[in-house]
Amino acid sequence: MGIFKRKIKNDVEETKADENQADDVLLKALMSGEEITRDEALTIPAISSAVGLICDSFAMVPFKLYKKSTKKGKKTTTEIEDERVDIINNDTRDTLDGFQLKKALCEDYLLGKGGYAYINKKGNKFIGLNYIQESKVTPYTNIAINPIFKKIELRVNGKGYQAFNFIKLLRNTKDGASGTGYIEEINKVLQTAYKRLIYELGLMKSNGTKKGFIKSQKRLDKKGIEELKQSWNDYVNGISSCVILNDGMEFQDASNTSVENQLNEKTKTFADEAKDIFHISNNNEDFIRYAVMPVAIAFTTALNRDFLLEKEKGSYYFAPDFTDLIKCSIKDRYEAYKIAIEKGFKTRNEIRYLEGDDAIDGLDMVELTLGSVLLNPETQEIFIPNTNTTYKIGEKNEKITEQIEHNNKDNEQEENKEVEGGAEDEVL
Fold this sequence. Notes:
By secondary structure, the chain is of the alpha+beta class. It has 13 helices and 14 strands. The chain has 4 domains: 103 residues, no CATH class; 160 residues, no CATH class; 28 residues, no CATH class; 54 residues, no CATH class. 47% of the residues lie in helices and 18% in strands.
């Protein structure tokens, strides 16, 4: 009698263990502690889409070289034609072209420890930019010994190089040698999304059959277990259309757990969360401002630090050109051009240049309205285009006063003529 009671007790404990296993199977998969890799993260559609959009947009941005100077007391900025501009945007003198280089650097910036490109240089002559996979670069710093006066060395396949030999595109860096990518920053979130993807893939491989457990009220011998496993495998693999369970057996679905319900809810919201993480917006201006511009400014800063000669720093600088990226519809663009011309801060030829058209003689003039009053803050002189007069603030100018009174009389006469002409029309 005691043996029979122990057998029933063991069967009940095994059944409870199976039920607990069903509840914990997904939780254990998620909490396994395995960090997701970069390749695994890119298999998540929302992540791949966001990273691809940002990298492609950044790669479209051309970078130009400018020089600041002062001529006749006026500050001027001139675009410089230089081989370095061609190296960045077109031919890097490496296996990657300019677009591919910027896209690769941006992806390493977002997902890895940073984007690295070796500056190929002979003396003061810049030869090219050679992209290096961030996994091949090992940064070394003395920050643990001297956190104030830091020194950096970058090793590529074990060979050491000075940091100034590289363009370094780093995100959330604290030492100037390596940064923190999204893979490291939000690894737990990516783990959840990746495990969900693997789980769905498993369902597809099993022809949509849900996972579960077969419970038996009585203990099966080894032969019975093997036959049941074979029958179940044939059903899952599509060989058999059904599984016949003997009396006392039942199938318990393991998919309707609280963990899986949370995963189903997460599936609906993860795409929106990915957009928030990478600052993806449906508004083009917001997308450029928050997702693309930070990468472009970081790249510009790196260029100004290491892709200029020491004697050039201060007067030369690189800057991104977002013109093509921010172009809106033709109607909105032309209305903006109209305002720029009327307000006088763009000439018609400058507008034609932005649209890729040739300059036309006579369209380099700045448009001014006759009703404007222009002040020169340096000389304190005021110019009135309508009267073609100039006078200094605080000085009495009788000639100007007479001219203004004369113009006022002319305007009154013109108004009187219009009134008289209107009266004659009424009489007729």
